[in-house]
Amino acid sequence: MAERRAFAQKISRTVAAEVRKQISGQYGGSPQLLKNLNIGGSVSHHTTVPLTEAVDPVELEDYLITHPIAVESGPLRDLLEFPPDDIEVVYTPRECRTLVSAVPEESEMDPHVRDCVRSYTEDWAIVNRKYHKLGTGFNPNTLDKQKERQKGLPKQIFESDEAPDGNSYQDEQDDLKRRSMSIDDTPRGSWACSIFDLKNSLPDALLPNLLDRTPNEEIDHHNEDQRKSSRHKELFALHPAPDEEEPIERLSVPEVPKEHFGQRLLVKCLSLKFEIEIEPIFASLALYDVKEKKKISENFYFDLNSEQMKGMLRPHVPPAAISTLARSAIFSITYPSQDVFLVIKLEKVLQQGDIGECAEPYMIFKESDAAKNKEKLEKLKCQAEQFCQRLGKYRMPFAWTAIHLMNIVSSAGSLERDSTEVEVGTGERKGSWSERRNSSIVGRRSLERTTSGDEACNLTSFRPATLTVTNFFKQEGDRLSDEDLYKFLADMRRPSSVLRRLRPITAQLKIDISPAPENPHYCLTPELLQVKLYPDSRVRPTREILEFPARDVYVPNTTYRNLLYVYPQSLNFANRQGSARNITVKVQFMYGEDPSNAMPVIFGKSSCPEFSKEAYTAVVYHNRSPDFHEEIKIKLPATLTDHHHLLFTFYHVSCQQKQNTPLETPVGYTWIPMLQNGRLKTGQFCLPVSLEKPPQAYSVLSPEVPLPGMKWVDNHKGVFNVEVVAVSSLHTQDPYLDKFFALVHALDEHMFPVRIGDMRIMENNLENELKSSISALNSSQLEPVVRFLHLLLDKLILLVVRPPVIAGQIVNLGQASFEAMASIINRLHKNLDGNQDQHGRNSLLASYIYYVFRLPNTYPNSPSPGPGGLGGSVHYATMARSAVRPASLNLNRSRSLSNSNPDISGTPTSPDDEVRSIIGSKATDRSCNRMSSHTETSSFLQTLTGRLPTKKLFHEELALQWVVCSGSVREAALQQAWFFFELMVKSMVHHLYFADKLDAPRKNRFPERFMDDVTALVSTIAGDIVSRFQKDTEMVERLNTSLAFFLNDLLSIMDRGFVFALIKTCYKQVSSKLYSLSNPSNLASLRLDFLRIICSHEHYVTLNLPCSLLTPPASPSPSVSSATSQSSGFSTNVQDQKIANMFELSVPFRQQHYLAGLVLTELAVILDPDAEGLFGLHKKVINMVHNLLSSHDSDPRYADPQVKARVAMLYLPLIGVIMETVPQLYDFTESHNQRGRPSCVAVDDYESEGGSMISQTVAMAIAGTSVPQLTRPSSFLLASSSGRQHSTFSTESSRSLLICLLWVLKNADESVLQKWFTDLSVLQLNRLLDLLYLCVSCFEYKGKKVFERMNSLTFKKSKDMRAKLEEAILGSIGARQEMVRRSRGQLERSPSGSAFGSQENLRWRKDMTHWRQNTEKLDKSHKPARSRAEIEHEALIDGNLATEANLIILDTLEIVVQTVSVTESKESILGGVLKVLLHSMACNQSALYLQHCFATQRALVSKFPELLFEEETEQCADLCLRLLRHCSSSISTIRSHASASLYLLMRQNFEIGNNFARVKMQVTMSLSSLVGTSQNFNEEFLRRSLKTILTYAEEDLELRETTFPDQDCKGLSEFP
């Protein structure tokens, strides 16, 4: 609106101001208008507060105490107070995947292990808001849930659906032609000329008692009972929800923390066959990622040998445990990519000769030649048996192959491939799918294109494949390392692979690969625990194979796991003297130095015991510097000591049997101590090897230390490379975390000095070390921080709550811990941004708070308080803040810190508490403020107890730290405010629970000092939002929603009046800023989000005091006294100011119904046409109201009509607010009626309709002319005070507003409505009628044919588009022409011909012809055709909505009519009532509605006959036309009622002046126009109706003696 419109410039400002004054008198004290029109003056003695400012809220807790309710029980009672079980503290056992939970076997555990195990096994501590799901965030009126609630709706019958279905487009063309016809064009040769034979027609059923003279009251009662019976209870179930994204107030429950798995793959090994079978072969499988050069799974060992082959090893192999007999495995892949290979390695029993010699027979013999080579094979078998007997416990490398995993997955997924190209792993193979599935390698180009983790790498849904691997490569003795393997694998993907030139070992390995099922049976974890379900222990199991993810995985530990993997890599004995050629390494895990100290913790491979005490590496024949490819898996003991170590013994194995030569000769020793300075030792080692047994006490030293007198290979150089990897949820493997945990445990155990790394920390140095270790947590790696997140946060919180005592001093670590937490959660937020919900809450942190966090027990070494055991109250009732705040805290920034005496609650229950009460009194004696020096007090305490019993409440300490922090710490806390808010709330609930205060009066729950801190916190954060919303948009949005959720939570646990005051604080800060902004919409939008979240509270209705004293008939509330003369615009005798207060946003209303007041105020302010810059928020604010009402509508707690009326009462001012918006509402009466109107609706039905929506008085007054007698004007424009043209709301927003209006009218108490209507001026009542008129058009039934023709979505979109288009085009015409255009009658709210009188208008009404076609085309191209059933369902809903909406309008009209009857004035508005009735008859209505509508119309005519026959004569003509039109309806009930109405109309007209001429003339004219212009009009039906009327006349005993029957019959028979 930068340049003012021409029209606006011509209006003199002074006149406008005068006019506003004039009108404000008429509008009588509506606060909106007073505000809109800038009129001062108060409505009554209490001061008015402008709508743009918040009022002081009611003191809710006091109010409830001082106003006890009269109702004893029942649904109303439940509205008054939150239910007693509103908040539950639940301890839920965590679900354990395995049959027995994973815990260490040792009973003695050190404190860190104990904490870890507790952290992985304790119950979840959940705070549950039991009714939370009833808040608006979980509104069932969403599209998916609505279907459920629409079941069992009756089908409404509409004439338009019954009509025969012609070509709808053609109908419209005809419609157009007919509209331009005049009555003169009526064809005279039609049935109208034929003999009109009524005698042979059959009448419809007569209405009983129609002719009785029943008193009007009785008729009204009867009509009302009929109308109110079997109505649809929930209006919003029929109204589609506005399409919003995820509602901002929905906070989803975080996922339960659980063990991480990637995509899971099930591999089953079916068979392994070679050309010759002479000896057992052992196989293993593992996954490798070539790009990352990383082994990404542990080994899976399987044994497919026949029983006969296994028998060859009997002497060496103890009985096999069933867990080692697995042949299927589940692999997990977190980062699937094109670079993942499944590598299969084979080994055999050691024999004399290198690998090439041993593999030769496998390459040259063919199975087909077995008979020919029988002797040679026997000889080989014989040799093999000898080797098995002698060397059965040693292995040698044999062969390997690899399968490119993604080929399998992608070819199994798609079938248009050619089987000959299949390569499974290697060279020249023929089709190697056993099913001969068509498949091939993904083209090379696509390989380059697909990067890791893309869609092509989805392992969850490919079709299972059976592979047959036919070729193996023999192992090269000098190329066994992983490095060599990665080269081979990379080479395999090249077309000219070196490997293809190698001679393969032919074999057949069959494996099945498929996505792993959700819950496979008979599964063992990597620790060999049985996973549920495990019905039978004798079944061959499936092994879960541990993943070593290719990149970091950020998931907190939730189960106990403590595994060590040892990878011997290479040995260099080139410079060692003496014979050492066939070398094997024996690996043992020792707990002491004696040989008997080897622990049975090494996992077995296949077909062997589960655990053994030693493992041997495979031997490379005659190689002094062998490589190894072994993986040795060890179960680490939970508690390690300095004596635990890995011992490596090197042996030379003599393969030939010689006299006096032992089988194995030790040729070297080395070892790795497991702990170094208390930390687990892992990583790459290059160790020197000793030639002789290590001396005593070697295990505590490293072999790098030159021990005196020892001989070493190669002068003590490192000759043995080995890698040690731990996968552990006990050992953090991060020096910073280790140091922090070690210090915390030292404090717990009070063990000094502490040895950490190379340092010994004495007690006097502990405080500095502890503080520096807390701040050093920032330097730790993110992955271990996340893995140990739960424990880490628990410990930091513990330090806050229980400040440690070091050297007799309390050390306050609150600030340090708070800073550490803030920085940790910000690191998580920044680095794991894919892991957040719509509110920016990191899911790992959210689930920590929801499931894990609990108030730490404040005594060392005793378990955390839970539901059992420790009655929480002993510990917690007395947990006040320590009586002093240490001076070291930077308090200069803290605001409103009271210096009241710290709260000492409860009776002393222990020496500690007595001590505290002594301190407390001592502190007060010294009138100690909160900052008194702590040293004196603490030393005083020390003398009393020797140990300091400090306990703090976490939420109190957290609030304090947050208020006093500054700089980067404050910034970090603001960035993730939600985290601290949620922690605080949960801490508060736990505190109340343990102190048994969940039922305590809310005012006594928390000390004042804490409340001050919360106030300071909320106030500064609101200040941040206001000052930073333009710079840090995203952060401020998060902060704003966090603050709102916090206040929403506080409403459940704190003094609610206090929380209301906090809300007001936020409001004030925003309001003061809003005024100074040129574009306020962003800040206003933030405030709407804030309000919407607060109002999503499940007890929102209760918070609004729905039963408070504003409502009659209670006595007047003290703040409201009788109205002053100012409000004389109400009816002359102001009955009751209280009624006005209920319907207006008066101060009493906004105070008592505080939240509802805020919501409606936002609506009024944003929808105000003069509100600068808020136009963009219309939809948002309307959706908020719509969402609230629709959620009340479906809420089971408010199903009782009495209760619903109380709820509706909170929204009574909505009626006034919407009345204000009439000029801005989308004009449904225009375009709506032209859409798909059934052609059976006669054209002239609409001829005489003045489409006015706005009372002329207002329009004239604004135009500055005098106010004439009230006739309905044709102008719909109410120019606002500045003369600007209104911006119209969108169809969707207008429709939402109107459905809200109808909901309030439907559910509000009728007597209250009636009292208010009585107080309204004629002008305002006309406004209301205008609104109802608009509602009729808005909710008109579209007709099944429309649904068939259009997809609802496109329908909605195109309607909105058209509205926008029109707005753009018409908007540029300028207000004056707009007014002229409308006054010419182009605003006829109907498809009648006159609307097209002006060509200029028709140009923009393209929806009649090609526009419609386009939308149809759009439909077809965009959306799949919907099923017949869906269209039926849509029409069913729409029909029910139209019926219910119109019945609500009818109910309201009845109340208006009663108002007129009661006051015996304001008859002038009856014309408006009639107009709405006639309009509704003209629209597409259901039979059910029309019956009630005719009944109301008959009652109206009988009560006010003069109205029709003397004042509103045009309407009389209209009525005749409508009735006749319905007399020709194809539905008999409609005809019955229409005939009855028409008969009574004639009869009344006759009685009033014994003059039948007028009605007769009008009926005649109506009949001619109906017959002449309506194309598919049915003579048969009309005849029956006329016959029915004659039948009434014959039966009407009273009038039999008059001339009426003659005139009637004569009239009817003369109609042609």
Describe what you observe in this structure:
The chain has 1616 residues and is of the alpha+beta class. Helix content is 43%, strand content 11%. Strands 3, 4, 5, 6, 7, 8, 9, 10, 11, 12, 13 and 14 form a twelve-stranded mixed beta sheet that branches. A four-stranded antiparallel beta sheet has the order 20-15-26-25, with no helix packed on it. Helix 19 packs antiparallel against helix 20. Mean pLDDT is 78; it is low at 1-46, 165-196, 414-423, 425-455, 858-949, 1111-1135, 1232-1285 and 1364-1423.
SSE arrangement:
Layout lengths: L5 H5 L2 H15 L3 H6 L23 H7 L20 E6 L18 H11 L2 E6 L13 H7 L9 H4 L5 H12 L36 H13 L34 E12 L6 E9 L4 E2 L4 E3 L4 H5 L16 E6 L6 E10 L5 H10 L9 H18 L3 E10 H9 L30 H6 L15 E10 L7 H11 L12 E11 L7 E2 L5 E2 L10 E3 L17 E10 L11 E8 L11 E2 L7 E2 L2 E2 L15 E4 L9 E9 L10 E10 L1 E2 L2 E2 L2 E6 L29 E11 L6 H15 L4 E3 L2 E3 L1 H13 L6 H6 L1 H13 L3 E2 L2 E2 L3 H18 L11 H10 L19 H5 L34 H15 L8 H12 L8 H11 L2 H9 L1 H18 L13 H21 L4 H21 L2 H19 L6 H14 L5 H4 L33 H7 L3 H6 L1 H14 L10 H17 L6 H9 L3 H8 L7 H7 L21 H8 L27 H17 L2 H10 L2 H17 L5 H6 L2 H20 L3 H12 L12 H5 L6 H13 L5 H36 L6 H13 ...
Parallel strand pairs: 7-14, 12-14
Antiparallel strand pairs: 1-2, 3-7, 3-11, 4-5, 4-6, 4-8, 8-9, 9-10, 10-11, 12-13, 15-20, 15-26, 16-19, 16-21, 17-18, 21-22, 23-24, 25-26, 27-28, 29-30
Helix pairs in contact: 2-40, 9-51, 16-17, 19-20, 20-26, 21-27, 23-24, 25-27, 25-28, 27-29, 28-29, 28-30, 29-30, 29-31, 31-35, 35-36, 35-38, 36-41, 37-41, 38-43, 39-43, 41-49, 42-49, 43-49, 43-50, 49-50, 49-51, 50-51, 50-53, 51-52, 51-54, 52-53, 53-54, 53-55, 54-56, 56-57
